[in-house]
Amino acid sequence: MPRKNYIYNPKPVFNPPKNKRKISTFICYAMKKASKIDVARSNLNYTLLPIDPKTGNILPRFRRLNEHRACAMRAIVLAMLYYFDIHSNLVEASIEKLADECGLSTFSDSGNKSITRVSRLINDFLEPMGFVRCKKIKRKFVSNYIPKKIFLTPMFFMLFNISQSKINSYLFKSKKMSQNLKITRKKIFISFSDIKVMSQLDEKSIRKKILNALINYYTANELTKIGSKGLKKRIDIEYNNLCKLFKKIKK
Q1: Residue 135 backbone zone (phi > 0: left; psi -120 to 50: alpha; other: beta)
Q2: Which of 59, 102, 119, 247 is the Cys-Cys partner for 75 at CB 3.0 to 4.6 Å?
Q3: Do 133 and 205 belong together in one domain?
């Protein structure tokens, strides 16, 4: 008798959820790179030696992944990237969620779910090869299944030719942009009583009050980043906003 096909889904594909999360330009770039190269047949897979994460010993291995595991890896790499937080290196999805969205979860006749295909790929290949690092999540109750946090390593990105310097460059730009955005989003808060008082003052006095409010509101570090030109521009914006308020009050 011919051997029964034990693979539930021989051609798994990552299908993002309908309520799509907002992903960064870096993740879009990385997913595009990963989809253009066969990550399961990457040269890196052939040159690296797998290490047992528990003992540190070199593990025996075949030169190539079998086709079913290679297919699973192609899907799971895209899923991990989709849920990757570049700032913490954490994949913000459980192994079960990754398995479900890649079509790698299987069900027995009695309805029990199995995510063995993904857990074995991670435990027996991705982690020993150094592409991911896993950390067990402590649970109060006893269970046969111990969930894990998955962290992607620089080696993971080398599968599709993204270097650590490229990641560092994006992180630097991202941090700089977030700092600038934080500064520009800040506003000074002036009460209606302040507005009534200021409506009786001349322009020079109003601008001076706005300047004092800005100095009290921002930190010394933020003021340095804003600079004298930026501060003048901020005063102009706040002054124009006040003029519009004055007009509304008079009406």
Answers
A1: beta
A2: 102
A3: no
Distance CA 35, CA 81 (A): 11
Give a yes or no: residue 79 inside a domain: yes
Q: Rounded CA gap, 223 and 19, in Å?
A: 39
Where does a domain end: 164, 180, 196? Answer: 180
Of 161, 180, 199, the residue that ends a domain is 180
Q: Is residue 2 part of a domain?
A: no
Domain that holds residue 62: 7-180
Nearest CA-CA partner of 81 in 64, 102, 104, 106: 102
Q: Mind listing the pLDDT tens digit for each residue in 118-171?
A: 999 999 889 988 899 998 877 655 555 567 899 999 889 988 988 888 888 888
